[in-house]
Amino acid sequence: MTEVAGKVAVVTGGASGIGRGIAEALIERGATVVIADIEQGALDATAAEIGATPCRTDVSQAASVEALRDFVLERFDRVDIVCLNAGVGPSGYIRDLTLADWEWILGVNLWGVIHGVTAFLPALEANPDGGHIEMTGSNAGFIAQPTIGSYSVTKYGVLGLAEALAIELADAGSKVRVTYLAPGMVRTNIGSSARNRPAGLEGALHDADISKVINQDVRWIDPITAGRIVTRAIEHDDLYAPTHPELVGPIRERHARIEAAHEKYPIMEDR
Ligand SMILES: NC(=O)c1ccc[n+]([C@@H]2O[C@H](COP(=O)([O-])OP(=O)(O)OC[C@H]3O[C@@H](n4cnc5c(N)ncnc54)[C@H](O)[C@@H]3O)[C@@H](O)[C@H]2O)c1
Predict the structure, then answer these.
(1) Strands across the sheet with 53-56, in order?
(2) Which site among 194, 239, 248, 260 is 20 to 30 Å from 271 CA-CA?
(3) Distance, CA 266 to ligand 1 centroid (Å)?
């Protein structure tokens, strides 16, 4: 169990929604928090409101995330908890997507997390107390659904990254732990993700009401609740942190389909 009180934490996408909720929950548990975000106005306002330190960052750019790490280490001389949460959630059928669409969504949701791991893991491993990396995935990282296929691609990618990193760290006897947060429906600004879309990466992905995209009757929760689930997962060293346990049904069905495929295919001899 990892103690949060007294620790230095960084939260990407911390100006809004789940990132803000994570930052508030960490502060509530006694951590010092740096929030990083591309949206300067919201970043400064949120930092002032919740008592965090702001650092403007574009997670899709490796140099920007490295500058964030340098800022945190220079300012606080340590880093213990890194929450790689920044993300966008636009919709669009795969057949309509342009390469610019893929570049945008992969750049923020998957490369953003890769940049975070690459920049911060050495500092966490050098920390004698160990540390924790939280990655905000999604329930859409467990099951694929129409119109959010590119989003699922990014979140399945983050899931593979989290699972493989957790195994490698455990095998190496590292004191760094990993959590994959899998939110269901959270009341945030994800429905207006295009507000942060870079010029030059326009395409077919568009903002959509996710309550209409996700074809299920689900419970909406507040960002602070998702944040408290993250602090709990950190304290319990949990790899998977689902916000909506009631959404396990379709995950079981998917696993059953994969298992059935393994039973259907016999072992083919090499001759
Ligand atoms: N809201 C939900 O129901 C839900 C469900 C599952 C997963 N998620 C995930 O939660 C995470 C947070 O999203 P949210 O719902 O809080 O949305 P949000 O729009 O409220 O917050 C996302 C934050 O990320 C920031 N951001 C966007 N591009 C960035 C970039 N290039 N660099 C740095 N910051 C950037 C935005 O400015 C914003 O502050 C995302 O990874 C999202 O995929 C959300």
Answers:
(1) 53-56, 32-37, 8-12, 81-84, 131-136, 176-182, 240-242
(2) 260
(3) 43
**With a cut of 50, which residues of the chain have pLDDT below it?**
none
Instruction: Give this prediction's pTM.
Output: 0.97
Q: Is 111 exposed, middle or buried (0-12, 13-18, 19+ CB in 10 A)?
A: buried
Q: Quick one: pLDDT at residue 214?
A: 57
- Distance, in Å, from the CA atom of 263 to the CA atom of 157, rounded to the nearest integer, reads 26
CATH fold of 8-264, please?
A: Rossmann fold (3.40.50)
pLDDT, position 44? 98
Distance CA 154, CA 241 (A): 18
Ligand 1 pocket at CB < 6 A? 12-13, 15-19, 37-39, 42, 57-60, 85-89, 108, 136, 138, 183, 185-186, 188-190, 193, 196
Pick the residue whose CA is nearest to atom 7 on ligand 1.
138
Could you tell which of 37, 49, 150, 219 is best to mutate to test the pocket of ligand 1, judged by most ligand atoms within 8 Å of the CB?
37
* Domain boundaries defined on the chain: 8-264
- How does DSSP classify residue 5? T
**Ligand 1 centroid, distance to 192 Cα (angstroms):** 10
Q: Which residue has the CA at smallest separation from atom 1 of ligand 1?
A: 186
Return d(Cα 51, Cα 40) in angstroms, integer. 16
The span from the CA of 186 to the CA of 230, in Å, is 14
